Structure formats: C-alpha cells, structure tokens
Amino acid sequence: MTSATAAPTPPTTKKRTKRRAGDSVFLGLSTASAVSILVILAGVAIFLIIRGIPAITANWADNTSLSAIQNPAQVPWTSFWEYVGPLLWGSIWAALIAMVLGTPVAIGVALFISHYAPRRLASALGYVIDLLAAVPSIVFGLWGIIVIRPLLLPLSDFLNQYFGWIPLFSGPVSSTGSTMLAGGVVLAIMILPIVTSITREIFLQTPRLNEEAALALGATRWEMIRLAVLPYARSGMVSATLLGLGRALGETMAIALIISPSIIYSVKLLTDGYNSQTIAANIALNFPISDDMQRSALIGTGLMLFVISFGVNMIARWIVGRSGSSATRKPKRRREGKAA
C-alpha cells in the first residue's frame, strides 16, 4: 500500500510595496505641519497662562498699580474678574452686533453670486469681495471715522426718537458718532469677505442633480434654493458664520479708533462714552503705557479672549458634526400594520 506524497508548496512571500520618495516627503511635511500647529497653539496658551497668572491671582485691592488701570469712575478694581468681565462683555457684544448686521448680507451676496448673477458679473463681484479681505483693519477704522460715523448720525436720531423706549436705543444720542453701532457696522463689513467667500464656495458645491430635480418638479428658483441648496450648505454656513465671529472677536484697531470706550456693562448703541470696551482694543490702547503688573493683567485678559475663541471653535465643530451626522442618518421606517 503506497501513500501519495503531496508536492511541497513554495513559501508565500509578501510583496512589499515600495513607498515613493515624493510620498514620503509629503507625509513628513504634512505630519510636521500638523504637529507644529499643536505646538504653536500650546506655546501660546502656556505663554498667556505664565504671564497672566500673577495679575489673575494678585490682590487688586492692595495693588494701586492694578486698580488704576483705565478706570474713568476712579473706583478701584477689587479683583481680576471684576476688571475682565466688562471687557469680555464688550468683545462679545460688538461681535454679536457685527454678526447680526453682516451675516444676512454675506449670505445674500453669496447666493446672488452663485445662483442669480450672470457669469461675468459674478466673477467680477466675487473678485471685489475677495479684495476686501486684503484691506488692513486700520484702513477700515479710518474709513469708519470719516464716512460711517457721520453717515449714521441721522439714523441714530431716528432710532432714538421713535424707538428710544428700547434700552438699545435709549440715552442721549452721540453728536460725534463714536458709538457701538458705528463700530458694529464696520466690523460687519470686515467679516463680509470671509463669510461670503466660504458660503459662495459651499453653494457652488451643491449637487447639480438636486437643483435640476427641484426645477423639474416645478419649483421656482427661490424654492429650489430653499429646498436643495440651503439644506446642503447648512454646516458650511455655520462654519463660515463662526469664522466671521472669530474675526470680529479679535479685531483691534477698527474698534479702538471708532468708538469712545469705557470699561462698563452697557447695551446702548447710540450713546457716546457708554460703550463697552473690547479686550483686543483695550490691550492695544494700554499696553505701551503699562508697567509690568498692568501688562500681566492685560495678558490675562488676552488669555480670556483665547479661551472664548477656542470655545467658539469647539462649538462650531460640534454643530458641523451634528448637522453632518443628522444629514446622513437613515430615516426610520414606520411600522407596518399586521395583515388581517
């Protein structure tokens, strides 16, 4: 009885794919760029914490240098949080005014460029909008002083006369135009190119088949935009809006030149001398004339602005992620009734 011998199988060898030199270089550069961003962000945070902690933990009641930081009421500050609170409010309040005034205009301009304007006009208008992002903030500030402040004086008188019962428009109207309303209008124009450019690109990425299907079903152009374009671009519009909010929160020179600031809590838009100061403008105005402890306090306020900006970005990522997951979520099927 003979047993059949199986032929020996050759050993299997794994083929190693050789990585090209260009791929290795690109991988190294991209990895180094990602790591450098994290290192720079951590370095900025560490610098702000180290330089701001002495003023944050100091006893302001016993420190005449700290309690005398730009306090028109001559009331000594008792703590860092009492000092930074009105500045945080002023930064958020000015940014919110800019977003309320600028975001609808920016989205409307983006829709006009992407879906209504002829091609030549759309390209020219888009080029002009992009050029606004290259204008320095100091130029916007000078333009706000010379043009915007006198231009808003009649509107301020009208709002105060007929809507003065609203706290936003109450109080004596400024004769110079150095109001939070003027600062908010300039900030709204400054965020216009950022929000417009991003939302325009998002609108142009809407699937063509979705738009054609809506039009084929008898929808008007606006109905097509409302049903096909805006739902698709929802997360992109949120991202663009929050990027504009970040630009408005960190703006310095335009606010410092236009408004007449005070470190107070105020919602008045038309008064002079009752405008809440922003953190960035306060640092720019007081840093050159401050001593070491006062500079530590200013750096501490910069740390608070850093935390606020970081929180805004985190909220933006959460909103975008949630809207993206809800868009890809499968609809639930209704339970079918039992057959008789």
Automatic annotation (TrEMBL):
Signal peptide span: none
Main subcellular localisation: membrane
Membrane topology: Multi-pass membrane protein
One family name in Pfam for this protein: BPD_transp_1
Stored InterPro entries: MetI-like (IPR000515), MetI-like_sf (IPR035906), Phosphate_PstC (IPR011864), Phosphate_Transport_Permease (IPR051124)
Entry keyword set: Cell membrane, Membrane, Phosphate transport, Transmembrane, Transmembrane helix, Transport
Record-annotated membrane-spanning stretches: 25-50, 87-113, 125-148, 168-195, 248-267, 297-320
Domain ABC transmembrane type-1: 88-316
Statement: the UniProt record of this protein carries the keyword Signal: no
Subcellular location per the Swiss-Prot or TrEMBL entry: Cell membrane
Cited CDD domains: TM_PBP2
Described function: Part of the binding-protein-dependent transport system for phosphate; probably responsible for the translocation of the substrate across the membrane.
Family to which the UniProt record says this protein belongs: Belongs to the binding-protein-dependent transport system permease family. CysTW subfamily.
Protein name as it appears in the record: Phosphate transport system permease protein
Name of the coding gene: pstC
